[in-house]
């Protein structure tokens, strides 16, 4: 089955740039989506199709995808960005399609 | 405004059954695929199952195939997950999620319903 690998944690100071990676075999050939989840809340889609933002998501959130790594970039990080972030793709398992999530990255604002 | 409301969770013994429901509003329900995603306590997200808008196609993660059945009633704007043969490792919050049109991702999520499998 297809595996997505994320770092367990990333820390950044307010106002700086956070980069969260998502590794997968030839992930650059897939569409990657990113979700933000705050404690006790449902996930929120923040980036889809590698680099598009849903309405209402600040321009500070951006994404890229190439080769074996996709990256979510959060510019000018704020305290309210502290959350868990998950990448997601559709992959194949055995002979059928499945959605796959990365293990998640906890973003800490120092 | 899109709204998804799950129900049906609870405490069940190993080997037991539950049926989860998700009532949708605010969009043309039968035009969108829907999915169930779960999250075990303190763990990450795990996709469980999906069904196409017309209910003709279903997908499952290997660990639930043969035990869980996803379905939908478009006349009632409701998504279901019938869970049989429950195991301790099925303990999780179960979210229903709406597929975003044209993209294989989820743009709206419910608040989730907790399923606990324990004796």
Which key features would you list for this structure?
heterodimer, A: 110 residues, mainly beta, 6-stranded mixed sheet, 3-stranded antiparallel sheet, 9 strands, 0% helix, B: 119 residues, 4-stranded antiparallel sheet
How would you characterize the overall build of this protein?
The complex is a heterodimer of chains A (110) and B (119). Chain A is mainly β and 110 residues long. The radius of gyration of chain A is 13 Å and the shape is globular. With 119 residues, chain B is mainly beta. The termini of chain B are far apart. The chains are: A mainly beta (110), B mainly beta (119).
> Rg of chain B from C-alpha positions?
13 Å
Helix content of chain B: under 10%
**Helical content class of chain A:** under 10%
- For the secondary structure, the number of strands of chain B is 11
Question: Distance N terminus to C terminus of chain B?
Answer: 40 Å
Which structural class fits the helix and strand makeup of chain B?
mainly beta
Please write out the topology.
The complex is a heterodimer of chains A (110) and B (119).
Chain A: E1 9-12, E2 18-23, E3 33-37, E4 44-47, E5 61-66, E6 69-74, E7 83-93, E8 96-101, E9 105-109
Parallel strand pairs in A: 1-9
Antiparallel strand pairs in A: 2-6, 3-4, 3-7, 5-6, 7-8, 7-9
Chain B: E1 3-7, E2 10-12, E3 18-25, E4 34-39, E5 45-51, E6 58-60, E7 68-73, E8 78-83, E9 92-99, E10 106-109, E11 113-117
